[in-house]
Amino acid sequence: MYWWYLVAEKGMSDFNYYITGLVDGEGSFSISVEKDPTHRIGYRLKPSFSIGLHKENLSILEQVHKVFGCGAIQFNKNIAQFKVEDIKSLKERVLPFFEKYPLRAKKKDDFEIFKKVVLMMERKEHIGNVSVFLKILKMRSRMNAVGRNRRITDRVDKIIAEVAQSGRAQD
């Protein structure tokens, strides 16, 4: 396999560029929105970075996991997925990686939005602040324009309207 040649023969730097290309094709930067009555606004934002491959390619994800030094590999039927969800790891490991080894295709714009949101969340700007929460939701709606985001845009629009009109909208 070519990826193993990059790690064993060429060194990790070339494999890091391989990871960037892999993410452009098979990766995802996402901000999920989950109903959560324990949060003042009634919803929780959950950023995540992931790469999903057929389980036959698990060894690639294991190498990716080693490079990032965080996250976990999860399984769902025939799919193996490397996933990083905690803000600290996203900020300290994932964001710097893609700043050093930049994306060049369709995920580049998603990463730039994702980076802004992660940094806002790391500074806790969204906690109890409806206007920042809504700003993040609007930024999030511009991500993954060709993926499954199209199906959930209406749901996010409803959440925006609900939060903006609810009693929780008082900052």
Assembly category: single chain
Q: What is the topology, as strand order, of the major beta sheet?
A: 1-2-4-3
Task: Give the structural class.
Answer: alpha+beta
Strand content: 15-25%
Gyration radius over CA: 17 Å
Q: Which percent bin holds the helix content? A: 40-55%
Concise structural overview:
This protein is an alpha+beta fold and 171 residues long.
Overview of the molecule:
This protein has 171 residues and is α+β, with helices and mostly antiparallel strands. 54% of the residues lie in helices and 19% in strands. It is built from seven helices and four strands, in the order H-H-E-E-H-E-E-H-H-H-H. The chain has helices at residues 2-10, 12-26, 58-68, 87-100, 107-122, 130-140, 149-165; strands at residues 27-35, 43-54, 72-76, 79-84. A four-stranded antiparallel β-sheet has the order 1-2-4-3. A hairpin with a 2-residue loop joins strand 3 and strand 4 (79-84). Helix 1 (2-10) packs antiparallel against helix 2, helix 4 runs antiparallel to helix 5 (107-122) and helix 6 packs antiparallel against helix 7 (149-165). It starts with a helix and ends in a 6-residue tail after the last helix. Mean pLDDT is 84; it is low at 1-8.
